[in-house]
């Protein structure tokens, strides 16, 4: 059967972020058996979700884990379940934020799905770090999510404008806002960046004020912690990602603080954030120019004329190397996992065949 838009356009679902992107993935007859649900929080062995009729606790099939899902995902669950249900399938995502897990583990970690706006959050103190903000910006650009830079603790800084000016260098058209995360009038201006049914996410280090922003927007009390004044490093307060309803049907995702953001498979994002260097590199005399001491290097000419900051060139080169290495490493790990799965399935099939002959 074909989709029936009228039947699929449930106001309760639309208020959760349901849109035509998800409608087109569900056949009308499926709604006789299944209900769409949006994932609100993900734990080790269960998932908290919301449907148009209320909250549900979800479990996964044996061949899937909760790590296969992201907060913000849309899934189908059996109809007429109360309290707990099993996930039937996940719908294709509109957007996805992910990173390589910390340490030597070659795995991807899902940060959040179906996000419309990413608030890249830093503060007007020693936490401010342009290189780290570039990484967050690359994630947003690669995923096709609107980025907005939020600089908190502006009320405590002697010159918040200097931090704004540094952040603005990341992109002429990049929105940069500074505010006091406890001031409701200032924080309410953020609501102009997304509308009812849309989802924004807060991403940044611990202690920059993400949970305080959440509290101000929701007028609820979530646990917060301060920062150490000697180095401005934050104390971890948010320990799990979660979706929260804010003013007029908007949704806000709070995330644990991240100091290490290892990127992979974000080549388009790197190119978008460093478009100025990419454009210069295309003007170099040699297509394989290393932008070091080669003749006719447009990048080095821009550095010599003070048009380009040499540190920005180094960050671009580092991020390109990191993205290439991490992408290859995770691709190899996934290939090994698939090959291992095939061997296991083959061995089980052989065992069953032997049983059948005995």
Would you kindly provide a written description of the structure presented here, covering whatever features stand out?
With 358 residues, the chain is an alpha/beta fold. It folds into three domains: 5-90, Beta Barrel (OB fold (Dihydrolipoamide Acetyltransferase, E2P)); 96-254, P-loop containing nucleotide triphosphate hydrolases (Rossmann fold, 3-Layer(aba) Sandwich), CATH 3.40.50; 267-327, Probable gtpase engc, domain 3 (Ribonucleotide Reductase Protein R1, domain 1). It is 33% helix and 20% strand. The strands form three sheets. It has a six-stranded mixed beta sheet, with no helix packed on it. A six-stranded mixed beta sheet has the order 11-10-9-12-14-13, with helices on both faces. It has a two-stranded antiparallel sheet with strand order 7-8. The longest helix is centred in the last third of the chain and has 48 residues, at 310-357. It is globular, with a radius of gyration of 23 Å. The protein starts with a helix and ends with a helix.
List the uncertain runs.
223-232, 234-238
Mind summarizing the main beta sheet?
Answer: 6 strands, mixed
Head-to-tail CA distance between termini: 46 Å
**Largest beta sheet: what is the strand line-up?**
5-3-2-1-4-6
Question: How confident is the prediction overall: mean pLDDT?
Answer: 84
Number of DSSP strand runs = 14
Along the chain, the helix and strand elements come as HHHEEEEEEEEEHEHEHEHEEHHHH
Shape: globular
Question: How much helix is in the residues?
Answer: 25-40%
CATH fold type of the largest domain: Rossmann fold
The secondary structure category is alpha/beta
The number of helical segments is 11
